[in-house]
């Protein structure tokens, strides 16, 4: 039985930052994640994708953000159970919880924090007759390493942030980038839309709208895609390509967590955002993209805020009679569980009295 003060389900950015905030309160954390490494989607799906809304970083790659968070939590020595999925939760007589993974590993903690992002997920695939034939042979639904597309002809399909952002990024990597979308309007951030239009005008991106990919051609690997333009004559054109990347988003699923008796709304866990992001089960919290409440924004920085308040509430729940005061690291620094001390003058900490 692995024991901790806070058992965090999900080792993405929000879960990792929760370790830091808990560590400042002298609370020991252990993280469970079905993926084989920490970082969640930032490590598994888009480690080389730039992120622009992390305070203090005008631009940072998703993988670098994870590396920084891992470095930040080192003094607090969290435990990790990776490559295992949280399967069953049982409340104990002392009000603590036992969580058992799909591989039988048992964890015990008075607090459970679900930071599972979107949960388990699958890419939404276009309906194309021979799509599966070219999967991993020119067709991919996730971009892990942009260098794979160095000097290649790439067609991206989609109208959201991922399609826009990757089109912009690969414009400086691939030999040719073509973005196909079924409408003239895009769903992504206005700034990204403007960048794509600018790169189109500069000749760095080919933009085909409104249009759809209707077929794939090739032998042992993908060689071309068929694009049908939504014009009066429904013109079809064949584009020679090396890679086709349909980016239509992910279909998220909560998995076993949906059977834990939590209040679920639209595949997300309802929480009380007026105080501490606790669920309908006392002692179980949900932070980050996995939760929902009025006005919810699915942003990493919002997850950081939620994790901070969650840890404050968790401390008070574990130690109802203990008091603490707010201090700054300019006064006390950050002290790890091993007694090591690190000065971090720009971070705010909570020092226990």
DSSP strand content:
25-35%
The domain count comes to 2
Per the CATH scheme, the topology name of the largest domain is FAD/NAD(P)-binding domain
Oligomer: single chain
Runs in which pLDDT lies below 50 for 5 or more consecutive residues are 344-353
Mean pLDDT: 88
Number of strands: 27
- CATH class identity of the largest domain: Alpha Beta
Terminus-to-terminus distance: 30 Å
Q: How much is the radius of gyration in Å?
A: 23 Å
Structural category:
alpha/beta
Description:
This protein starts with a strand and ends with a strand. Strands 6-3-2-10-22 form a five-stranded parallel β-sheet, covered by helices on one side. The protein has a four-stranded mixed β-sheet with strand order 1-9-8-7, with no helix packed on it. It has a four-stranded parallel β-sheet with strand order 14-13-12-18, with helices on one face. A hairpin with a 5-residue loop joins strand 7 (86-91) and strand 8 (97-101). The protein folds into two domains: 2-121 and 250-352, FAD/NAD(P)-binding domain; 126-246, FAD/NAD(P)-binding domain. It has helices at residues 13-24, 41-44, 62-73, 161-170, 190-201, 300-318, 329-332; strands at residues 2-3, 6-9, 29-33, 50-51, 60-61, 79-82, 86-91, 97-101, 106-109, 111-114, 120-123, 153-157, 176-180, 206-208, 211-218, 222-229, 236-240, 243-246, 250-253, 264-265, 268-270, 284-286, 291-292, 324-328, 334-335, 341-342, 348-352. The protein is an alpha/beta fold. It contains seven helices and 27 strands.
